[in-house]
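This part of the workshop introduces the protein records we will be handling. The structure tokens are whole numbers drawn from a learned vocabulary of backbone shapes. The record below serves as our worked example for the rest of this section.

===
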Amino acid sequence: MLDQLIAWSLANRLLVAFGALAVLMLGAWQVREAPIDVFPDLTAPTVTVMTEAPGLAAEEVEKQVSFLIESAVSGAAGVRRVRTQSVAGFSLVWVEFDWGENIYQARQVVTERMGPVAAQLPDGVEAPQLGPISSILGEIAYIGLYDETTDDGMRVRELADWVIARRLQVIPGVAQVTTLGGRVRQFQVQVSPERLAGFGLNLNEVRDALERASRNAGGGRLVEGGQDFLVRFIGRAERLDEIEQAVIAQRDGIPVLVRHVAEVVMGPDIPVGDGGINGRPGVVIAVSKQPDADTLALTRLLDDALAQLALDLPEGVRIEPNLFRQSDFIEVAVSNVATALRDGAIFVVLILLAFLLSARITLISVLAIPMSLTVALLVLRAFDITINTMTLGGMTIAIGALVDDAIIFVENIYRRLRESGGSQDAASLDETVREACSEVRYPVVFSTVIIMLVFAPLFFLGGVEGRLLQPLGLAYLVAIAASLMVALTVTPVLARWLVPGVIQRSGEREPPVSAFLQRAYLPLLRLAVRFRHSVVLVSALLAIGTLAATALLGRSFLPDFNEGSLTIEMAKPPGTSLEMSAELASQVERWLLERDEVLSVARRTGRAEDAEHTQPPNLSELDVRLGPLPRGKEAFLGELRDGLAAFPGQFNIGQPISHRIDHTLTGVRADLSVKVFGPGLGELQRLANQLEAAIEDVEGIVDLFIEPVSAVPQLRLYADRSALARYGLTVADVADTIDTAWRGARVAQVFEGERRFNLVVRLPEERRTLEAMADIPLQTPTGHSIRLSDVAEPRIERGAGQINRENGERRLVVSANIAGRDLRGAVNDVSAAIRQVELPEGYRVELGGQFEAEAQASRTLGLVSIGVLAVMLLVLQLALRSLPLVLMVMVNIPLALIGGVIAVFAMGGVLTIAALVGFITLFGIAVRNGLLLISRYQNLAAEGLSLHEVVERGALERLTPILMTALTAALAMIPLALGLGETGTEIQAPIAIVILGGLLSATALNMVVVPALYHLVQERPQPA
């Protein structure tokens, strides 16, 4: 079949040429249209359920809301983990499904389970709402809005909610826009308790009256004189004076109006979060994209919209559009990888020119690069895979190997035509080219199949590592397969047109570089064969020593990313007020801005209303955009940690994307998490403190952080039921009064054009004190006025500020990051330390983090690689029909291991999943080079040559193609390898360094050890 394909291509040269041109043009068009992203979609199918529970403390939210939702969704088809977070007034539940589950079906499953839950929720708790579909990389931008003319926060928040957010939300591709900071404007009815008591009224009567005082109604239709009229009653209040005129009750025939007992004013809502922009108070606007949206294209649309909005803002209001932009990271990352791809291609061209000294022959081989990459791009687009650093990385890693098949074909065609003198008629030229291609077709096909086989383990990886690496593997495999098809079709056609002319000009002499290398190599080859026993023994000892040295390598999951931005979590003691927390975080914010490396800082304290980002008031997040780091990232982070230690609180330093990957793996935004499970919050806190003390001295542990679930002060009002009965009041009467007085009761909405604002009944701000709480007036059924303290006993106690659960159990997490050492070593030390902590009955500890994914990925790669090795042996057996020869080819694997392990030690001695992928790629290329040499030996032996002639001639004939293929594959990695630590190449650079180091050792030793080993195995006793 392969011979027929080659012959057909030579017979239809114009058709093949035009087909290749069409593929290139189609690929060029697809490049312009393809979406670009930083990584493939790493999101596990997750449905978030948000429930507003006004007035409920964290314990009540857990018992009455979160537990109900958790119980309803646990056990649903495809659910792998359920996590809940309960804070005062809000419940958030994450329902995580198995990888591969359809997100829309997952949402349908959760929606169906929410029906019965809504009926069981307490009065006043809103129905659960599903969060929007998004990904872990969904937050693509943070935008700041601040007001230079006033600091009340209401104007800037109103603009953020009703102008900025609404304009951004309608942009195609935007999933969600959330605002945090500023103050939400309200129409407030601030009731005076004294004036209320003077009229014998209570707060509940004011609330009920205002609920009836602002309504519109439709009266149906009226037909008069043949005309149809729509009847409308307009009674909704739209101004402060209209609210003041609302009637509450009658006293001696005189109406008591709202203005008689209260002040009606504009005022801010009770905040749950606070924001800062570069040291100024303001609003942080977070924009999340839809999962399939093109981040770069969407960012350009956002920039256009923000530029237009900036022109229309009131005087003194400013937009800061660059607090955080994921597109900056994408552009730098993709540019770095694309540059490495370009430079790798240049290296390939230079190597081919050096060996062949012919632009025409170089062109034939190099054309395989754009053809193969174009086919890979078209296949990726067919599978709806974006252009990202991983797919580009797969193509970059493949680029040196893309020309290998073409090189082997061209080199053999060139050699055969040179031997025939090049002066043949057209038919003879066609036949010579076909025979030359047929001569190497099987070694080329089998070796390409082997290279593709070694990538099979990547497609058995699950979780984040599978989502991350499989697009890289797919891009590599498709490009390699395309290069084989190019070698079988396009390469013979171009060689038929171009090579004869080259030979006519250059004659039959060997290219100078090839001739020089053969002259230099021949003495070394003869020396290796002469001392073959010593060569084999030394190389075996070297391989064994290298294998033993792998035990000294550290282990980690993924290399550290260089995102150009930081996320700093700051935790103050539980119970710290939002105002105090914001002030302390602002001090850190201003200190960060004094650093030359810091370009901007966005501060988010507390949480945003109706958003998935839930955290108590004592927590702040500072998103820091960085400029150049002249002293290096590690030095900067060390200085940062030292400086932050002077501020009160706990700190956790991470990066936006890295934090989100950690959160997907373990539910915690850190490298390592120690999860304590058990029923009692106090006991969980005690155990967490012991665990923190146990691991704080472990080498490499930084940013040690305990989840903020410590008890916070609470003012608890215990109902005196005998007093309630004596006064004829119910618990509900008192609870409603407290809710209205303290939290405020929303009774209606006031419209200003399209904007709407809540109308709230509450006490004035100056009356919202602990002392004034006891004096809240209550009205008895008999008309007497009493105080709250007459029917409720106030006590200051402590209660949970936040309660987290995972898979049905309460959970507390001690988290940490790792710096300056490998992850596996740190985990082993932490595991030993936590075993020293004695756990009471009913409590347990789980260690989680990236190391779990690393261990699982390593096991998967190891097990699948054993199967791949067996299949590789089978393929080699089919190619060579000799087990001893097959084993000789496999010798290249330990030979490649030598250079690869040395390369890992040069990178710091830490073996990551990226480095493992490098070894997988390396072994395939090394085995191919061994197959080329051994297959030539086999062909020469079949011709009846002596063993000495077979070894010497075969090695000399295969020297040039093996060196060319090895050097193109290895040196094409140099641009990626030099980019170690640069943005976007964090995963690809370790792969490239392993390939580079391994191929250098494998190629050098292959041309020495394999000939010696072949001679040693094949030699027979000579007759006397």
User: Anything to note?
Assistant: The chain is about 55% helix and 20% strand.
